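I am still getting used to backbone structure tokens and would like to learn alongside you. Would you supply a protein for us yourself, any chain you care to pick? Start from the sequence, derive the backbone structure tokens from it, and show both lines together. Go ahead whenever you are ready, and we will take it from there.
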Amino acid sequence: MSFAFPAIYNFPPFFTQQPTADTWSRQRALWVSLVLAYCASHRLFLVDLNELSVSPLFTNASISRSLNRKAIDAVFEDIVAAGNGEWEDKKSRSRCFVWWKRPDEWAALIYAWASDNGQKICTVYEIVEGDVTEGLEFHGLHIDAVKRVLEVLVKQGRGQLFYGSSDTDMGIKFA
């Protein structure tokens, strides 16, 4: 999948944490935007920071630069603080759900689809892998991410969860 990196991606200082607090803050904001756009383009929902740190996102081979892990961690702290991420492992902070659409936005999309199509009860599998959702934006959503999204619908009073023998058997009865 091809991704068009912004011009700043080819600016070597972009890959070095800037010493001035204001500049570093603006730099992190640019990285946050880049991470969200990259994850959306590649449909990445759950990322491993160790793997991502050596990916083209944080390593620009054409200018022989990469962002160090400490700076990557700071970028992801900003992503989480802004509500666009959630640590899968709060202790080690090495895996993060990246919400390039926030859970309430995903929930609204799923609920609108269900309402528009007369869906009353659906399993997680039907929502993310089913033929009826093929081509929809939430098709292929990570299984653990969709569970969090369905919990949003429950909190909004728009559904009730039911549990099966596996995660894909889990589902929702829409209100």
